[in-house]
Design brief:
This protein is α+β, with helices and mostly antiparallel strands. It is built from two helices and eight strands. The protein has helices at residues 17-27, 84-93, and strands spanning 3-13, 31-39, 45-53, 56-63, 74-82, 104-106, 114-120, 126-132. Strands 2-3-4-1-5-8-7-6 form an eight-stranded mixed beta sheet. The radius of gyration is 15 Å and the shape is globular.
Length: 133
């Protein structure tokens, strides 16, 4: 059975990834645990770095052309899950409307890839289910 396992990460949109990585690494003593570049919805590159200090993991996201946003720089709170397909079905049965029909899979995000899907909480907070493979 699919299981929700707590906080996976908090996604933060940044304007300068190198400056942000240096701040979290050199000032706040985070480790940069994974970096990759993926294609954005517009086909342009999106640079991603995960920074960790203890149980806090930040997903630092830099777009080639930042989208106009109403959500601010903290983009989403990700919940770690096991068997994302089953958890998605269970939440849909409880009335959760996901932003896309399909779960996203990207082989570049973490060594074995990861899957995710986004939805909104009751106050429009941006939430994500994520399964690191």
């Amino acid at each position: 059975m699919g299981e929700m396992k707590g906080l996976a990460h908090v996604g933060v949109f940044v304007s300068d990834l190198e400056r942000t990585k240096a701040f979290y690494r050199d000032v706040l003593e985070f480790d940069i645990t994974w970096e990759c570049t993926i294609d954005g919805d517009d086909g342009k590159p999106v640079d991603i770095a995960f920074a960790q200090n203890g149980s806090v993991i930040l997903e630092l996201v830099k777009f080639a052309e930042p989208p106009k946003r109403e959500d601010g720089t903290v983009d989403h709170i990700a919940i770690a899950v096991e068997d994302i397909e089953e958890v998605k079905q269970r939440l849909e049965a409880r009335g959760v409307a996901f932003e896309t029909k399909e779960i996203v899979y990207n082989p570049l995000v973490f060594p074995q890839g990861s899957k995710w899907i986004l939805f909104r909480g009751p106050d429009n907070e941006h939430l994500e289910l994520t399964e690191v493979l």
